[in-house]
Amino acid sequence: MSNLDRAELRIIGFLCNWCSYGGADTAGVSRFNQPTDLRIIRVPCTGRVAPLFVVKALMSGADGVLVSGCHPRDCHYSEGNFYARRRFEMLKRFLPTLGIEPERFEYIWVSASEGGRWQSSVVSFTERIHGLGPSPRVKLAMYDERLVASAL
Amino acid sequence: MSKLDLLREAIRAKLPELDLVLAWGDDAPLRAAPLFVRSEDDLTRLAHPALCVTNGAVYLYTLRSKKIGLVVKGCDSRSVIQLLQEKLVARESLYIFGLPCDGVIDERKIGQEITDAGRTVSLTIEEGRVRVRTTDNEHVLDLDAVLADRCLRCRYPNPLIYDELVGEAIAVGETPQEPDDLDAFENLSLDERHEFWMETMRRCIRCYACRNACPMCVCRAHCLADSRSQHWLSLETNVSQKWFFQVLHTLHLAGRCTECGECERACPMGLPILLMRRKMNKEIKELFGYEAGIDPTATPPLQTFSIEEDKIWEREL
Question: Which of A97, A107, A122, A148 to mutate to probe the B interface, most B CBs <10 Å?
Fold first, then answer.
């Protein structure tokens, strides 16, 4: 599973520093095999991740966005992921209004010890994004080909 | 006494105790403009209620240090309640004149009915009819034909908060019904919806009238759309930037937007941006059972949390 087998898609991951980044680290230490499409951005807490981060990533050419944090009740800052849970559920339901497949965005809770679960989450999300294919419309929005074409 | 006369007397009585009263004035024939009543002389300029389109609550945050009176329709009162919920305005600094409303005129609809609306000299409202005198013509229109769309689906004609009610409350059916006119949009596929927004936002001129008219937009000079330290938006004139601003505004209004419709009304290009906010409110209603601007003691759902959520279940990938 590498860039040599098939073209990589761009999947952005926002991982909370404590649980999920730790979980990804555990997966790494245990040398679990994962696709390399996921590009991880470490944040202190999923509560820091505004829904706009996800939309901006999708608009800028990401094919998928995965947000992962501590399990509810286990947030390192007590409440951050409670707020995050509400925001991401709202965003997931709102994306279809914008014409974006809600399957391109997912939020999960992975703790620092769950290396195996991290690996399987990354594998299945990457497969899901490959199934959906590169995100055609948001890339189009980024380059605005039609607006340029209509001006010519 | 007409509703306008009752309003005039009500304001006259309270004016000595207040720094100013926000009402509507008859500056232009097709739509009333916000009127800042500071003296009794200003009261001669009060506009007919059917022309009082704008939402006075947009000024409340800027004027929060003053003791002000505010005339509100039902939709405006929801904005006031939402500001109170978020503690952006103190209840003690407001005196609210509640004005039951049976609809306001949409000047764009007048423009669709008659070709010389731009040359209107005067507009008078009679029983169920609107008489528009232009420089060369006189037109008589059905009032129902020129009422704003949002008035046709109004569920709260009576203000939900007030210190005194001006005139008789309007009788409503038992429970205000949810409007169901979003079907046309909801029947579009994802591709078609994306196309819809791209075509809509292509005509946007980034004037930010929608943001400036929104009562919930209190960030003013600190708006993220203008910020360079957080570079959310560039000044590139492409559709994606304009679209992203609408998404930014809608996401910032999640759980806060009262659907007063000022954004769409203020838009000089007539873009259907209220639709995006209404769809957001629909999701908020389903997820949290919450409607903005109804209960002054409630908390907006995205500003709080529950440990157990009824409608949110953990997903496995």
Answer: A97
